[in-house]
Amino acid sequence: MKTKLLFFILLSGYLVFGQATINQSAGAPQAFINNPAPLGPQFGAEIFRFRSGFISQLDSGNNFGFTNSRWFAMGRVPAGTQTFYGLRFQLENRGLVMGYNNLTATNPLIQWIGTGANLGNLEFRVANGFGAPGTPASDLLVATMTNTGNTVFGDPTIVGSAARVNVENRTGKGVEINSTFSLTGTSTSLNITHQNGSIGPNIGIGMLVTNSNTTSSTRGVNVKMGGGNSSVGFECVNTGGSVEAIGYLGKTNGTSPFEAAVYGITPANGNQWAGYFDGKVFSTGGYSQPSDQKLKENIQLEKSVLEKIALLKPVTYDYKNLSEINLPRGIQHGFISQELATVFPELTEDVRKPVYDKENNISSNFDFKSVNYTGLISVLTAGIQELNTELEKQKLNTDKELQTLKDEIAALKEENTAQKLAASAIKNGFSLEQNIPNPFTDRTIINYSLSTGVNKGNIMIFDLTGKLIKDFPVNENKGQITITASQIGKGLFIYSLVQNGQELISKKMIVQ
Prior knowledge:
It comes from Flavobacterium dankookense. The strands form 6 sheets. The protein has a 6-stranded antiparallel beta sheet, with no helix packed on it. Strands 17-16-19-20 form a 4-stranded antiparallel beta sheet. The protein has a 3-stranded antiparallel beta sheet with strand order 7-8-9, with no helix packed on it.
């Protein structure tokens, strides 16, 4: 019993006096506790030092400095010229503090300090354990805050499809970025830099937005802008590639009732454009413009446009090489806007184009006039129609005059033929007189004479197509025949005197 009591007394004395000595507490709170000096190795390792609102431990070195000591502290921690309320972990030439940098601070902070190569970065890692002495546990780099102010998520040396940053939110906003514009510089809310070092079919994507919502309206990226001298909702700049360079690539899958790879909306008033291209535009599918009747009012036909078209001055020209606007090269065909405006002012428009400096700020405006060449289509069409109407009138008049000439020539030919036949008939003794009456409705009489010494012949009736209608043989050198309407029908007919198979003379008759 005495032995146990003696052991308890000695142990209590050691704990009271020995511990009090090791804890080294003395005086008022100071930035560094150097007095009394750290205990030497003969007393064992130092455990803690206590001051009001402050606990620390010196692990290596002879003071609580920054360069050659290793220690930690918590509470009202010394941190250079400031008093820090939190934790400080100090290694040689580098340290880490967490907490508040003054009593009135609202936001806590994490701050790491270093010199030169010791500055380093702040890493966030996850591991499945603490490992064994001398063998660190396997861990994964989650994020890195660099000493230049950047934050990198994930390990850039690991290749995989897993998301480096995943924001899940069922209501409200998933990510909100607020950037206050500086009057002395450029403010960037979100800057994505992508470096693809692979060669081959791999595709590097700076930002991939995937939305699988099939039950409501969705937006992959929704940008809302407003205010300021120059407001750009979405800016895409491509500095060029070894094969191709595309500033913006829009695609659709072709399965929806309405699809548009690029869709722009703006009021069609003045200097406002749903699409503005400073350079050439190419389309494989053509260009279409709304022209439905239900969209229009005050519809009137184009009239008397030939006179206006005659006032136009088509020209060829070369565009100037201007820095404010990208114009095509080579010989161009068209009109001068100012000249066209004197005839068709509604087909010209004033355009004001902003001019940007190297920082993409508007430095000036470039004003010029444009021409709506599409609007000239209906004007030129109406002109062609008017010209065609004039040509049709002239053709009709020409046809009438030509027919009159043809009729006169035919009459002259017929008269000449009749004269020749009459002369031949007188010479050869044959004749064929005009039927009496002509026209007739019931019957008519034709007097004839064959050549001298000839007593047989024929009087043949033909229609205007040359088809034989009736053949009347004659057996006397001179006589007459009677033809009834019932024998040949109604119409215009030709009757001929035929002798020895040869047509001698022909005349016309009409049956009504």
